[in-house]
Design a protein that fits this description.
Length: about 210
């Protein structure tokens, strides 16, 4: 499995209408969590964030919100941000635009947020324009750093190092509150949070 844990500048330039980093002002970093809600991983993430007085942004799959509405509500009640991650985790490069937009709008019925992250980061420029036309104030949120917690060939410590070696003010970091990522997430998230505390980063939600 090939992927870059640090997003290269050329990719940010090609998709410059998307958000890859937040402002470095204020010494804030932005932890995000994709693919939930999940009955084991999401409550764990919420518990860990609460320990560090941290806020996060959860990019949720519509069908999972339907399946676990109480967990989705816990995310909101804890003051975290949520975003749309399609209804069925669709790959935009492999899905025609009409079907893709319908799926995004189906998820939007349950996730009323202007924030959107395409699964796998795979989306076409036309799909981006359509989402911005259909969802008022839509922001396509990508990332600066991948923890790699989805990669079953890694261990948790590798995921920690993927984040802390390159973390900087304004970084958007991807974790996953999912069954696939659980073993690595459980190890890596508390250690990344502790590192952020030592570095005096404020952990903020994307708005």
């Amino acid at each position: 499995m090939f992927y870059l844990t640090k997003t290269p500048g050329i990719l940010k330039a090609l998709y410059k209408s998307c958000v890859w980093n937040m402002s470095p002002a204020g010494n804030k970093v932005y932890l995000t969590f994709d693919d939930g809600p999940h009955p084991q991983a999401t409550p764990f993430v919420l518990e860990q964030l609460a320990k560090y007085n941290a806020k996060g942004t959860f990019f949720c799959i519509g069908k999972n919100v339907i399946e676990y509405p109480a967990i989705y509500q816990q995310i909101l009640e804890a003051g975290h941000a949520t975003g749309n991650h399609t209804h069925n985790h669709l790959n935009g490069w492999k899905t025609n635009t009409g079907t893709y937009i319908e799926n995004v709008l189906e998820a939007a019925k349950y996730i009323p947020s202007p924030l959107f992250r395409p699964p796998y980061g795979r989306i076409t420029p036309f799909q981006i324009r359509q989402i911005k036309n259909k969802i008022p104030g839509a922001k396509i949120i990508m990332w600066d750093l991948l923890s790699g917690d989805f990669d079953t060939t890694l261990n948790g410590e590798a995921c920690v190092q993927n984040v802390v070696f390159k973390l900087a003010p304004g970084s958007i970091v991807v974790f996953h509150d999912s069954a696939k990522a659980w073993d690595r997430l459980e190890y890596a998230l508390p250690r990344v949070l502790e590192y952020c505390k030592k570095q005096k980063y404020e952990l903020a939600a994307i708005v």
